[in-house]
UniProtKB/TrEMBL annotation:
Family membership noted in the UniProt record: Belongs to the CPA3 antiporters (TC 2.A.63) subunit G family.
One Pfam assignment: PhaG_MnhG_YufB
Protein known as: Na+/H+ antiporter subunit G
Originating species: Nocardioides marmotae
UniProt GO MF annotations: sodium:proton antiporter activity
NCBIfam families xref list: CPA3_mnhG_phaG (TIGR01300), PRK12674.1-2 (NF009314)
């Protein structure tokens, strides 16, 4: 068994798992009840699915000139997805589009609304 056959098998596994995670993200977009849950479903499995597909592509191509570009794609996907999700979540919270009955912790609520005093006495 050669290492190229092993790398091709690992690439196929990465493609399949990455595609499955991307499908889970798409299903989560449709099935989740509110905006914040949909954002979570869009970012977490989608980024991991993209990373696995790019890793499978790197294992399949095995060219040093392409590996740098694929690494750049992964880094930019990880950076922009997190920032974009955070900004959309904040904007939707400020616009009142978040269902407050589904929130467990509300860190963006006005601090004057707390019943307990904050800080040292």
């Amino acid at each position: 068994m050669s290492w190229t056959l092993l790398a091709d098998g690992a690439a196929a596994a990465c493609f399949l798992v990455g595609a499955a995670l991307t499908l889970v993200a798409a299903i989560g977009q449709v099935r989740m009840p509110d905006l914040l849950s949909r954002m979570h479903a869009a970012t977490k499995p989608q980024v991991l699915g993209t990373v696995l597909v790019v890793a499978g592509l790197a294992l399949r191509l095995r060219e040093p000139s392409v590996l740098g570009l694929l690494l750049l794609v992964v880094l930019l996907q990880m950076a922009t997805s997190v920032v974009a999700s955070h900004m959309v979540g904040r904007a939707s919270f400020r616009a009142g589009q978040v269902r407050e009955d589904l929130l467990v912790v509300d860190d963006l609520r006005d601090t004057s609304a707390y019943e307990e005093p904050r800080g040292a006495p």
